Amino acid sequence: MLEKEVTPLLIDAKTAAKLLNVSERTLRTLTKRGELPVVKLMRRVLYSHEELVEFVRQRSQRTSQEIR
Fold it and tell me: Is residue 37 pLDDT above 90, yes or no?
């Protein structure tokens, strides 16, 4: 039986930065500003894939409204 590929709910900072196409430093800055929420699990700081998608959606909507 073939298993379906699973999309992780939580991802590390390195992966989150790659998905957003920003540096890890920029990711930390956005996190410190409260623009990106994190999930702390044990000692790890992780990002919700769903929250990253929502962040991009909000930014896209705001930017397209500013252009008009």
Answer: yes
